[in-house]
Recover the amino acids of this structure.
């Protein structure tokens, strides 16, 4: 028996890939979204038992609509959604252009909202649903060279809270805010954040996936919440 039908955006790489794999392991039917990394998405598909893959440019509203219609047509209506797709750049505040700002916000915030909207419409048909938005420690803690990114991820947290009210009682909306998650790109700046983490290490992507799984399967009386998975870094 399926644990649920879930679309994971940005599932071809990094945290999104691990979320898709872990949810598949827990019995979810997975729909894998990718932007341009088809080969990586196909690999994730094989890791998820042949889960279907769907391409869409989430910076374009019409592409989001097409994505959700294609997922519905192939898989049926969604009862779960994980908004993981995101962009990240490092630019000093006084050098950020309008294009830089839009590049980040078009996917990190605008696309997250319209994916929630499309997903919620399908969930309403089923009478229930769960949405999890991936925010960031950067949405809680200010980073001087990531003003545009921090603003977008803080927006995701407030969007989560507002949608939790707007979509209740049928649909829960929660957020997971990762801290430093270890991949193979740890530079001196990232290492300094790891060194400042009370737990004494970077997080593992599997720990983010576990938090997502909790929100998708835990009590439906929990909504509008952000779970910070950062080893205590935000408390420093």
């Amino acid at each position: 028996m399926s644990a649920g039908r879930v679309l994971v955006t940005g599932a071809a790489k990094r945290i999104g890939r691990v979320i898709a794999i872990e949810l598949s392991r827990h019995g979810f039917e997975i729909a894998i979204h990718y932007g341009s990394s088809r080969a990586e998405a196909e690999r994730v598909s094989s890791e998820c038992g042949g889960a279907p893959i769907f391409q869409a440019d989430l910076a374009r509203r019409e592409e989001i609509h097409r994505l959700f219609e294609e997922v519905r047509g192939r898989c049926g209506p969604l009862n779960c959604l994980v908004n993981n797709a995101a962009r990240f750049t490092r630019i000093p505040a006084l050098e950020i252009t309008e294009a830089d700002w839009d590049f980040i916000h078009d996917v990190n915030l605008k696309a997250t909202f319209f994916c929630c909207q499309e997903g919620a419409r399908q969930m309403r048909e089923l009478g229930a649903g769960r949405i999890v938005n991936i925010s960031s420690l950067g949405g809680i803690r200010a980073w001087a060279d990531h003003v545009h990114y921090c603003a977008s991820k803080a927006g995701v947290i407030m969007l989560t809270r507002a949608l939790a009210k707007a979509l209740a009682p049928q649909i829960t909306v929660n957020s997971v805010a990762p801290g430093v998650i270890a991949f193979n790109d740890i530079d001196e700046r990232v290492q300094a954040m790891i060194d400042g983490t009370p737990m004494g290490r970077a997080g593992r992507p599997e720990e983010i996936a576990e938090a997502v799984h909790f929100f998708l399967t835990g009590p439906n009386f929990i909504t509008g919440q952000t779970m910070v998975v950062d080893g205590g870094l935000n408390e420093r």
Notes: The CA atoms of residues 1 and 27 lie 8 Å apart.
